[in-house]
Structures are given as C-alpha cells and as structure tokens.
Amino acid sequence: MRIIIFMSLCLIGLLSKAQAQVYMTTTGLTQIFSETPMENISADNKVVSAALNTVTKEVAVRIQVIGFKFPNKLMEEHFNENYMETAKFPTSSFKGKIIDAIDFQKNGTYEVNIKGVLEIHGVKQEKTVKAKLQIGLGKIIIDAPFDVKLADFKVDVPKLVFEKIAEVISVKNHFILLPKIQ
Amino acid sequence: MKRCFLILGLWLYGTAMSFGQDDLLAELSNAQKDIPIYTIATFKSTRLVSGHSIETIAAKHLDFRISHRFGAINSGFNELFGLDQSTIRLGLEYGVSDRLTVGLGRSSYEKVYDYYAKYKLLRQSSGSQNIPVTITGLIAAYTTTQATMPTRQYFNNLERQSYCAQLLVARKFGEKLSLQVSPTVLHRNKSETPIDANTLYSMGMGGRFKLSRRTSLNVEYYYTLPAFSKADLGQDAQFTNALSIGFDIETGGHVFQLHLSNSKGMTERALIGQTTGQWSMGDIFYGFNISRVFSFDKQKNQHQ
User: What residue ranges carry the coiled-coil annotation (chain A) (predicted)?
Assistant: First the structure.
C-alpha cells in the first residue's frame, strides 16, 4: 500500500516535470509611442526576450534598452543618455503571473490579466497588464499594450522639451513564444 | 524501505526540476546574448571647441553649423571690446553612414573653403564587447579664394591649398568626463611667412566635463611641435598655440557652444597655423558655434 502511495506521488512529481513547459522568445518586439500635439515620437526594440511558464503561469520579459531604435538619432541619444540612463540601467524588465484561469492545452484566444513588477530606469513598480494570448500551432502569441507614466519611474523631462514628450508613454509588445528546448 | 527512499528521492527530484525554473528572468538573461553598448555622446558635438571631436554625424543626418568669432577683448572701447569685428564659418556636414561623415564649410577669414571626411575607426563599447577608446580619422583640405595682394601673394592655384590629417582618440570616463588627444599634421603649400614651415606637427588635447545633463565645460589645447632639428624650419615664432575654453549647452535639436580662445580659427588650418593671440596679453576672442542636426532618415516605424 505504502509503495503504491509513493509510486503515485512519484508519478505526480514526474508528471509535473513533463508539463513544466517554458515558452520563450529572444526576438520579441516592443514599441514605444509618445504622442503630443507638437510631435509624435516612436521607437522599436527587437532585442526583447520573453518567457512564459505554462505550469506556474509566470511571465517574464527582459528588454535591452540600447536596442530601441529611433528614426532620429539625436532622440535616440537623448533617450539613452538623459532619460533612460542606459549606461547605468541597461535593462528593463517585467516579472509577473497570469492571475486569470487559462487552459494552455486548449487552442484559442484568451484575454488575461498579468500581475507583476515592472522595472524601468532602476525603479520597480507593481503593475497589472491586460494581455491577449493566442494559443495554437505549438506557439503562444502575446500582445500586451500598457501605459507608463514617466514620473512613476523617475524619468525627468526638462520643461524645455516637456511639450514634445508625452507624460504617459504607450508601450506595445508583440511576442511569439515557442516551446523552449530543454 | 530502501526502495521507498529511492522513490521519494525521485519524486523530490521531479518536483525540484519543475520548481527549479521559477526564476524566468534569470533564464532570459542567459538565453539572450547582451548586445554591445556603444558609448554614446562622448562629446555633445562634432567639435570640442574649434577642433574636431571624435563624434560623427549619424547616418542620413545633416548638421548645419554656424560658427562665429568676434575680435579680441583687448581691442578697446572703440571696437566695443571686439564685438565690432566678426568672422564666420558656415558648414554643412552629412552622415553618409553612422561612421562616415563628409563636410563642407566656408570661412569668411581669407575666404577659405574647407572639405573634410571623417571616419570612426573604432567605437568605445561596454557590455558583451569591451573597447576602451573611440578612434576617428579625419582628412581635410582647404582652399583660400582670397585675391592675391602685396601682403599675401599667390602665384598659382596650388599655393592656395592646404591639407590636414588628424587621428582623434577619446575615452569617456563615466558619465561626466571625456578626454581626447588628437595628433595632427597640417601641410600648407604656401606657408604664412617666409620663415614659417610648410608642414606643422601638432598635438591636440582636450576634454569635457559635464556640469549638468545639458551643459558641459570644454577645454582644448593644440601644442605645435618645434622643428625636429636646427636645419629644419619650424613654425614662425609669432604664431602661438591655441588654448580654448568652451561651454556647451544642449537643447532639443541644437547645441550651442560658447567659448573664449586666443585663436580665431574655426578650422585646423587657422587654429594651428594662424593663431597669434596670447592669453597673457589679453588677446582673447569670444566666439560661439551653433549646431542644428536635421534627420533625413525616412525609415518609418511599423505601427501595428
């Protein structure tokens, strides 16, 4: 009897191991938009990595800030040197958990909330992000737009350029996650 | 019982595996190689004060520069302490690629046209790739179009040409301090005076210290080497080494550079070859550069 209990426990253990699937990408896309009546500014970053654990429902995103490309190089320089201080804070990240029920075995589109900690410019903030998950064809596509208030992350914009840079930056994310090869 | 322990061990191993991956972020930083972080904004502008800095113009960007030098402060009240006189250089400088810049300028003093090409050979970087310095090479030529006159006679057009080659080496030490050395060779087909050497070897040195995020203090000094031997002709002794102190202010798209110098030169030809002022005598020239960079990068971001 004891053996059977242990056997079943062992099986559960092994099963959870087999299911512990991590989906991952290292070529995600993150875009930022600043819209003001004076000027619209946008930049793309293609060196974003993201991962999703379908068992623990954990999500992590890591962005190399230097990867943001602006059409105007002077803006890129100001972005890195004055606002994001990239040399001091080279990465931004998000680490959280899907708080809604989701069945990763079933294909389809899910609207879920991801609650976690967003770290930008060395400042950590609690954040709940609404995300759209498309599951199917062996991959998970995540679209997660959210807004970032610059003041929350201690990003100073001098008054001179205040009218050209929005106080709230919209961020769009598009990640195509594939199963990680163990 | 032994078997039970074995099974328990296996089970623990299994669960440990499934929970062992809980730090997804750490896993991500292992999965993606960090891209090198090239040091940006070693200097605010392509000029330290009057001489070149290692900075080049970004690809498809155009820098329009207006440089202005007033007369000497010791020229007295009648000249409003130098403000009555002015020399100007207008320049257009274009980034062919992120590393290569070509420029064209015209100085009012002696009606000189200048043309240059500047190439970033090595870029200081940190992160996955460590390079300690940025090295930029510069070649320039100058043509004076001033009419020949008794004090300055040109017998053919070749005599109106001058050439310059410069190697600019700089390092950004942290956020605030950047230092540069710039060994320079300047060749004039016609020297300034009969006792002046045609070819001058000069060592430029300078740096900037950031006072705030948008302002910096710059210093630049060009030391022209004496003649290698007694037989060689050195620089005519009436010419002095240029020492300049500048203050940069950066606003959105403009950089304003205000400075005091014993030289009125806005190109290497004038800076190294034609400086006569002395700080100790009060031959100090007030000047400024205004730089405005325009982007011609038509690449549109894909909005989804």
Answer: none
**Whether complex ipTM tops 0.85:** no
Is residue B104 a part of any domain in this protein? yes
Compute and round to an integer the Cα radius of gyration of chain B. 27
Query: Structurally, how many domains does chain B consist of?
Result: 1
In a domain, B247, yes or no: yes
B30 in A contact zone (CB under 8 Å): no
pTM of the complete model: 0.79
A3:B304 CB<8 A: no
Q: Give the whole-angstrom CA distance, residue B177 versus residue B262.
A: 24
| Token pair in block for residue A41 | 């500014």
Residue A179, pLDDT > 50, answer: yes
How far apart CA B91 and CA B93 sit, in angstroms, is 6
What are the backbone angles phi and psi of residue B87, rounded to the nearest 5°?
Answer: -125, 150
Which architecture does CATH list for A21-179? Beta Barrel (2.40)
Smallest Cβ–Cβ distance between A53 and the set B7, B21, B34 belongs to B21
The b/e string for B179-208 (b: 16+ C-beta within 10 A; e otherwise) is bbebebebbbebbbeeebbeebbbebbbbb
Domain holding B186, by residue range, is 35-295
Say which residue, A181 or A82, is predicted with more confidence. Answer: A82
CA-CA-CA-CA dihedral for B248, B281, B243, B112, to nearest 10: 90
Cβ contact, residue pair A58, B213, below 8 Å: no
Closest CA to A42 of A170, A174, A176, A182: A170
- B267 vs B270: CA distance, rounded Å: 6
User: Any chain B CB within 8 A of the CB of A41?
Assistant: no
* Vertex A103: Cα angle to A100 and A107 (nearest 5): 125
Confidence at residue B211, expressed as pLDDT on a 0 to 100 scale: 94
Q: Strand, helix or coil at A74?
A: helix
Structure tokens at A69: 């490309």
How do beta strands B86-95 and B161-173 pair?
unpaired
Nearest CA in chain B to A23: B24
pLDDT surpasses 60 at A73 = yes
Mutate to test the interface with A, among B96, B292, B301 (most CBs of A within 10 A): B301
- pLDDT of B219 higher than 90: yes
